[in-house]
Amino acid sequence: MRVIICGAGQVGYGIAERLSAEGNEITVIDNNAALVQRVRDTLDARGLHGHGSHPDVLAQAGARDADMLIAVTQVDEVNMTACQVAHSIFEVPTRIARIRSQTYLAPEWSNLFSRDHLPIDVIISPEVEVGDLILQRMAYPGANEIVTFEDEKVVVIEVDVREDCAVIDTPLKHLTDLFPNLNATVMGVRRDGEMRVMHSHEHMIAGDQAVVAVARDQVSRILGLFGRDEAPPSRIVIAGAGNVGRYVARRIEELDPGVSVRIVESNRDNAQRAAEALNHSIVVFGDALQGDILREVDVRDAHMFLGLTNDDKTNILTSVLASEMGCRANIALVNQSQYPRIAQRLGVDAFINPRAITVSKVLRHVRRGRIRGVYTLANGAAELLEAEALETSTLVGKPLRDFNFPEGIRIGAIIRGDEVLMPSGDVTVQAGDFVIVFALAESLRQVERMFRVSIDFF
Q1: Of 176 and 136, the one with more pLDDT
Q2: Could you give the CA distance from residue 320 to residue 263 in angstroms, rounded to a whole number?
Q3: What is the pLDDT averaged over residues 386-401?
């Protein structure tokens, strides 16, 4: 597959890294020569210095023969123009653009991105994606990770396994006998920093982080078994009134006006914009790293603190400070993949990585075959996929116990219409079923053979 990526920043580089590792022909364009050189030096990809919206640069990048253009520069207008040029001049079949400004995404302007106007096939809004994930985390504060696929019938959570966990040291095959009505499957664990597939004869140990597929209506129950069933927060303090902070606060106001939200913002203009845009939230101009400011917003009585500034270190330190002052839980927005390991030791409860979320969103739209959802875990060490079983799949037509599953793969759930089935040995996958799959990175080719359609990139 030939892919052109406009933008070599964190997101563009991450996408190029994943696609090039799978043997695709990748060209990355950026007007920052240093970023282009990094692509050339570290990836099996071509780097091109220039503006991704310029026709001559796209022509040099091979747009005439490209299968897809992904525009993820920092400027919305450049991304939109690149897609327009790719469509109008080079007839690139698929165009994906990152759009950050919420003005473009307002419902009243929804026709803007139609094929007759700005021909963009997929729009990615990091602020919306991150904000929605934060809202999901708030709904289930006991979970470290929450992945919801498009049908929303099955949720995959990552949850800590502690000494008080009710199912610790219990072989997984016995869980069905102990909890016969529980629609949940432990697919894998993160143990000592490494992702592992869990088999039915194995058991979880204290210190694991379990990856569990569960029917949506039983998420609270499974969190309870892990000793992590916690009530959603009703008093929230947010550090940062930028795009993400404002979006989260506005959505909280819309979903539950009874929740108290207080925002601390160190930029006066951002604070003013937030105060004008929000109806019930209290906005305080000040530095969240100052104890006096956090005391002013009553962080000691808050149920949750959200570090949502544009600076990773600020998000981590303010989260730690909030916890030390009495806040029950915290979530930090962190872009750098190396920070969470350190910050967790300092007392940060959960992390959200905007880059990982955006890369996962892109991968959903560039996978081959009947793949409706893709989500990466542990910086690409494993993937969660929602795949449609076709009649040609080797998985179709026989009980799961008779199927020889490759190493590194675990089925989490099977969705058949409105029904959610757990993958017991008696279950037979039918054509048209959607299957939730947990796969280690080195086993993705095996998933391809299972479904007889390529989940690899074009």
Answers
A1: 136
A2: 17
A3: 86
Tokens of 89: 């001049």
Side chain identity at residue 198, one-letter code: M
Q: Which pair of structure tokens corresponds to residue 208?
A: 């694991």
For residue 9, give the amino acid letter: G
Radius of gyration of the chain (CA): 23
Residue-wise pLDDT for 320-331, tens only, equals: 999 999 999 999
Give the pair of three-digit tokens for residue 223.
Answer: 């969190």
Backbone angles phi, psi at 172, to 5 degrees: -60, -30
State how far Cα 407 lies from the chain centre. Answer: 25
Closest CA to 144 of 348, 365, 389: 348
Task: Specify whether the CB–CB gap between 377 and 350 falls below 8 A.
Answer: no
Q: Lowest-pLDDT range, 134-138, 186-190, 298-302, 358-362?
A: 358-362
